[in-house]
Amino acid sequence: MLNLFRSLRYRIITSIVMIEVVMLSIMVWANTADIERTHAVRLAQSADLVLSQFTATAGRHLLEADFASLDEYARSVLEHGEIAYITVSDNAGREVLAIGPVPQSRELDEGPAESSDGVYDVSDPIVFGDKVRGRADIGFSLAVMQGTTAEALRRGVGIAAIAVFLSVVAALLIGFGLTANLRTLATAVERFRRGDTDVSAPVHSRDEVGQVASAFNTMVRDRAKAESALRLSEERLRQAIKLAGLGYWIWDVATGRYAYCSEEHGQIHGVSAEEWVARGSPLTGDLRFTDPKDRDEVATAFDALRSGEGFELGYGVITPTGENRFILETAEPVFDENGSVVQIYGASRDVTDMRLAEEQLHQAQKLELVGQLTGGVAHDFNNLLAISMGNLELLGELLEAQPEALSHVEAALGALERGQDLVLRLLAFSRKQTLVPEIVDPNELVAGTVELLGPTLGEAITIETVLAEDLWPISVDRGQLETALVNLAVNARDAMPKGGKLIIETGWSRLDASEARSTADGGYAMIAVRDTGAGMVPEVLERAFDPFFTTKEVGKGTGLGLSMVFGFIKQSGGHVTIESDPGLGTTVKLYLPKAETVPVEKQERPRPAPPRGRGERVLIVEDDSEIRRLIVTHLKDFGYRVDEAADGRSALQIIGEDANFDLLLTDLVLPGGVGGEDIAAKARSLQPALKIAYMTGYAEGMANLAPDCAVLLKPFKKAELARTVREALRRGDPEGKMAVRAPLRVVK
Ligand SMILES: Nc1ncnc2c1ncn2[C@@H]1O[C@H](COP(=O)(O)OP(=O)(O)OP(=O)(O)O)[C@@H](O)[C@H]1O
Ligand SMILES: [Mg+2]
Question: Ligand nearest 428 Cα, by number?
Answer without folding.
Answer: 1
